[in-house]
Here is the input.
Amino acid sequence: MKIQKLKTCAALSAVILAVSACAPSLTQDTPPASLYVLNPLVAPAQMEATANTMQLYVQKPTVPPGFDTEKIVVIKEDREMDYISGAEWSGQLGEVLKTYLTQSLENRLPVGTVLDENVRQEAGYVLVSTVRSFEAHYADEAASSAPRVDVEIAFALHNREDAKIETQVIITQSVQALDNTVTAIVAAFEQALADVTELSLKRLF
Here is the structure.
């Protein structure tokens, strides 16, 4: 795996053992990136029949500068932000996380609780979230060892009728990637995000 800098190209040894040269990012010869998705929380095998007491709309999360992109963000030990070359999320991060949270809550909350975009004005509650961290951290400049993935999200449940915040939580989870491969890193992102979402469900609802 090569890491592509924001302004310059660098040759780094990561997933593969050989060090390879990095071509200009805008060259027509650059192969298309592989796209990766984040699977939402699954619905339990048996859901209890619970009366629906609220209707909720999941707002698109706010993400930090430089993060609302399809690229997978990497932070090196010197705090330099890079991107994984040749691998991207299936959409811009904000949209990917909105879809993830919406589907996860649909799978875990009573049927009819989560409203889609077309009827969001009918929702009495809005889940607002702010992403504080969503990156893979490398401990060495060469990015030669498996990174740690950090996910931190601040959630706020807004009551639209009373125009007040019902509950606020900030949840942080870190997962060590099992290997220095894109597949292992994406799996660590998915696990960390799942842990954050599980905890948010317990504290918000």
Confidence is low (pLDDT under 50) at residues 2-29. Strands lie at 3-5, 34-36, 56-58, 71-75, 81-89, 125-137, 148-159, 164-176. Helices lie at 93-108, 182-204. The CA atoms of residues 157 and 173 lie 20 Å apart.
